[in-house]
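We now fix the convention by which a protein and its fold are recorded. The integers have meaning only within a learned vocabulary of local backbone shapes. The record below shows the convention in full.
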Amino acid sequence: MIQSLLSALAAFVIGTISRMGYGGIVLLMAIESACIPLPSEIIMPFSGYLVHRGQLSLQLVALAGSVGCVLGSVVAYGAGAWGGRPLVEKYGKYVLISHHDLALADRWFARHGDITVFVGRLLPVIRTFIAFPAGVARMPLWRFNLYTFIGSYLWCLGLAWVGMKLGEHWNTLGVYFHRFDAVIALIILAAVIWYVHRHLRHSR
């Protein structure tokens, strides 16, 4: 099931980039950064493979990927800034999010928002969803875009470079990257369990 899904995503990614070039990279990375889990672990290595074939430029591939990340992230940021907070304040208690938690998030992004966004852009899974909480916390948009661009550029450049170096073997990368995704997902699950336990204990 998962393998067939990845194969379908890979076919969609390959077809889009093959037809649209740099514009396809911008589009796909924008989708990935708008909280839609379209794997950049397929998008960027395949783009690097096209660099290996001489069809694209490595620097322009990384630039296109990071521009797409910023565009998609602005959408997710806006959803968090203008729609997320009222919804969280009204219905957050049903998903174990309190006003205290919102205040903590505000203070966290006020103190550490830059590094949080930057590091988040370098981590699988987390990078897809970091924009929404940044929007809810109303992190200054220009700083959010700056650190999103820097972190995303490094991420896109790294994946494209690996795809370029491995050349014809780019399609084997997704398996290994998604195993790393699974490790990150387990860490997130452990954090969620801790959070629920903490919330229930405080409510008692």
